[in-house]
C-alpha cells in the first residue's frame, strides 16, 4: 500500500497559546482536548484520488502528549465516495504505514468513526473548521513585527504534520461537544495552529 498526500492542517485545543504539547511539556490543564483536521488538496492512496476531502480527529489527551493513550473520534468528509473513505481510513488508521502511522500510534482508543459534513477553509492565514453541528473553531494567525508574515514554529518534538513548520495562532471561537470523550467546550482565544503537509507512505 502506498500514498502521497498534499494538503493543509487546522488544529485547535483548550491549551493556552502556545500549546505546550508541541514541545513535549504537559498540557496547561493537565489534559488536552483538541480538533485536528487534515484537508487533502491533492493526493492518491493506492491509485485512488482523494483530493478535496478532509479527515478530522476529535481527541482527548489524558496527560503528556508523548505518552499517548489518546481517546479519539474520527470523522471523514461526507463528500467522499465509499472508495475514497476506505482509502483515507487505511491511512488515518495507521494501516498504510508512513508518517501518519507514527502519529496514530499515540491513539489508545477510537470511540467512533463517522461520516460528517466538514467545512475546511483557509484564506490569508485565517481558517475555519466545522464538523457537523457539534464542532466549530476559527483560526486567527499571529504575525511578525511587520505584519506581513505568519509566526512560525518549527523543529518541535511533537507534530501533527511531521516534517513541516506550523503557523501559530489562536482560536477566537472553539466549540466541541462529545459525550463519549468527555468533551464539552465553548471557549475563546485558546491555542490554534495551521500548516501544510506532504505525506508519503
Structure in words:
It is a single chain. Strands 1, 2, 3, 4, 5, 6, 7, 8, 9, 10, 11, 12, 13 and 14 form a 14-stranded mixed sheet that branches. The protein has one domain. 9% of the residues lie in helices and 50% in strands. It is mostly beta strands and 201 residues long. A hairpin with a 4-residue loop joins strand 12 and strand 13. It starts with a strand and ends with a strand.
Give a quick account of the main beta sheet: strands, pairing sense, barrel closure.
Answer: 14 strands, mixed
Count of DSSP H/I helices: 2
Number of domains: 1
Helical residue percent? under 10%
Structural class: mainly beta
User: Could you give the distance between the termini?
Assistant: 8 Å
Count the E strands: 14
Low-confidence blocks of residues: none
Overall morphology:
globular
Strand content: over 45%
| Average pLDDT number | 96
Q: What is the radius of gyration computed over CA atoms, rounded to a whole number of angstroms?
A: 16 Å
H/E series, N to C?
Answer: EEEEEHHEEEEEEEEE
List keywords for this structure.
single chain, 201 residues, mainly beta, 14-stranded mixed β-sheet, 2 helices, 14 strands, 9% helix
Tell me the layout of helices and strands.
Elements: E1 3-13, E2 32-45, E3 48-49, E4 54-61, E5 70-77, H1 82-92, H2 98-104, E6 107-116, E7 118-123, E8 126-131, E9 135-141, E10 152-153, E11 166-171, E12 174-178, E13 183-187, E14 190-200
Amino acid at each position: 500500500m502506498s500514498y502521497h498526500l498534499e494538503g493543509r492542517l487546522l488544529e485547535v485545543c483548550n491549551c493556552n497559546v502556545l500549546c505546550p504539547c508541541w514541545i513535549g511539556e504537559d498540557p496547561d490543564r493537565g489534559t488536552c482536548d483538541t480538533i485536528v483536521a487534515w484537508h487533502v488538496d491533492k493526493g492518491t492512496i493506492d491509485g485512488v484520488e482523494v483530493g478535496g476531502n478532509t479527515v478530522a480527529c476529535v481527541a482527548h489527551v489524558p496527560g503528556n502528549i508523548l505518552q499517548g493513550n489518546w481517546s479519539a473520534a474520527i470523522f471523514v468528509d461526507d463528500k467522499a465516495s465509499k472508495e475514497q473513505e476506505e482509502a483515507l481510513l487505511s491511512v488515518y488508521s495507521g494501516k498504510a504505514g508512513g508518517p501518519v502511522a507514527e502519529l496514530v500510534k499515540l491513539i489508545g482508543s477510537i470511540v467512533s468513526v463517522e461520516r460528517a459534513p466538514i467545512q475546511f477553509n483557509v484564506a490569508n492565514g485565517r481558517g475555519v473548521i466545522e464538523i457537523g453541528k457539534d464542532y466549530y473553531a476559527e483560526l486567527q494567525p499571529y504575525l511578525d513585527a511587520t505584519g506581513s508574515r505568519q509566526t512560525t514554529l518549527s523543529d518541535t518534538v511533537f507534530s501533527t504534520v511531521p516534517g513541516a513548520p506550523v503557523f501559530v495562532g489562536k482560536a477566537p471561537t472553539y466549540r466541541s461537544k462529545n459525550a463519549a470523550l468527555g468533551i464539552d467546550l465553548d471557549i475563546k482565544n485558546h491555542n490554534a495552529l495551521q500548516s501544510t503537509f506532504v505525506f508519503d507512505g
